[in-house]
Amino acid sequence: MRNNLVRNLCIVALSFVIFLSPTVGDGIQKAEAAPSFAYGADIGWMKQLEDEGVRWVDDNGQPEDPLQILKDHGINSVRLRVFVDPPSDYYWNKDGTTWTMLGYSDKAGVLAAAQRANDMGMSIMVDFHYSDVFADPGHQIKPSAWSNYNNNQLQTAVYNHTYDVMNELRNNGITPDWVQVGNEINSGIMLPNGSTDNFNALTAFLNEGYDAVKDVSPSSKVVTHLAHGDDNSLFRWWFDNFFNNGGKTDVIGVSFYPYWEGQPYWELTDDLSYNLNDMASRYNKEVMVVEVGGDESNPKDTYWTIYDTINVVKAVPNGMGTGVFYWEPEGHSSVLPDGYLVGATREVAPNVLQYTTAIDAFSDASSDGDSSGGTGGTNLVINAGFESDADTQNPTGWTTWSNSNNDANYTEAGGYTGDYRLAHWKNSAYQLSTYQLKTGLTNGLYTMKAWVKSSGGFNTSQMYVKNFGGSEKNSAIPVTNSWTQITITDINVTNGQAEIGFWTDANAGNWINVDDVEFYKN
């Protein structure tokens, strides 16, 4: 264990400083209150790219501060990584020569970035990697200076390093709202000493980081962060062991990268929702997605990855879902040292980047409805406005059942809002259902709405909700060539799930159009 006398002296000194600290207006910056929901971006590469000559333009093609552009698109929080002693030759450019680190992810670099964000009124998350380089599930490398430490020495080192960085921030008027103790620590930290093979030792290390944060900044919430946020069995195993060994944390953070999982986002968001809801209820902890990302070359899917992730987190019961951070939206593969493909910009000229429409998801989702004008609570429908696809038989996020090879189901131009709508039509008789199964729901009353048109002539044509623990509820789609909103109310979910959809039993040439679907908890 570290020297308790040193620790006690630090606490006494901190208390004395707090007692004597001048009030706002006497030279100390007032920290902004944490937002009710963090619309966040990790910007660890931003200053390095600027120093390498990269520039950004706004939506109108005018030069602008890249952080200001993010703020203008709804970003209210930033995330900043910190290494112990980052080597100067850690980054490489495309020609194989080295770039100097210049402290971008050391204490000085984190302080400079935090001051920049703080000056813009943004909230701050600090992410301790406890390594000299990036830490992730496959790389949890002890800092070089700590390589020969035993477990007691490592506990002291974790505490002192965490305290030192936090104290430097505090002395400069910065109070992080969140502090990660470890980054994607599925396998542990500082291997092999902090491996999950020995949760007792791992938990002791993490608790030292927790204590250091609280000793400097009691209001900062400590985040414990794992990758693969859609894997509930992994999270239950990890956090059961952590808490059984006396682990301390305030927030459970997850990474959610459908791109790296090799699956479309809509196939994983229900699993993410289930896991976050379970973590919040099982351990009574807030939950956040502290890393999310999508393909830079597909801004439409990346938009919906962000947007639907935000809605999933917001839907966690009792306000326990508190934020989503995009990992490095300012980057682009053409300028990043490792060709990273999961930024949210496009290169409009050599070394000139412009954010794609992907980041519009933050400002759109902050309206607490869907981006196509939803009027209820947080909309749980994926691709609610059918804008993810142009002219497809298989709308993103939706499942089709048909007795006619699915060719009566498609998206087409002419939405109620936006560019596209869902259509059911065929020149021969058909039966067809387009639906989503929502799982991980909080039991309670829900509402479903949609804007519709119809030719009439159907045997049956309706919007429906079923498999929610009660009898199916439906609303007939009216015969009209004008967009009309229909609603199903008092959907009492008692089993944590519901299937929502549109069913047609049609004669030849019958058609319906659907747009801007909503399903939300009252």
Helix/strand layout:
Elements: H1 4-20, E1 38-42, H2 46-51, E2 55-57, H3 66-72, E3 77-82, E4 91-92, E5 98-99, H4 107-119, E6 123-128, H5 151-171, E7 178-181, E8 188-189, E9 194-195, H6 199-216, E10 221-226, H7 232-244, E11 251-256, H8 258-261, H9 269-283, E12 286-292, H10 299-314, E13 321-327, E14 345-349, E15 352-355, H11 360-365, E16 399-402, E17 409-413, E18 420-425, E19 430-439, E20 444-454, E21 460-466, E22 473-476, E23 480-493, E24 497-506, E25 511-521
Parallel strand pairs: 1-3, 1-13, 2-15, 3-6, 6-7, 7-10, 10-11, 11-12, 12-13
Antiparallel strand pairs: 4-5, 8-9, 14-15, 16-19, 17-18, 18-25, 19-24, 20-23, 20-25, 21-22, 21-24
Helix pairs in contact: 5-6, 9-10
How would you summarize this macromolecular structure in one to three sentences?
Helix content is 26%, strand content 29%. Strands 1-3-6-7-10-11-12-13 form an eight-stranded parallel beta barrel, surrounded by four helices. It has a five-stranded antiparallel β-sheet with strand order 16-19-24-21-22.
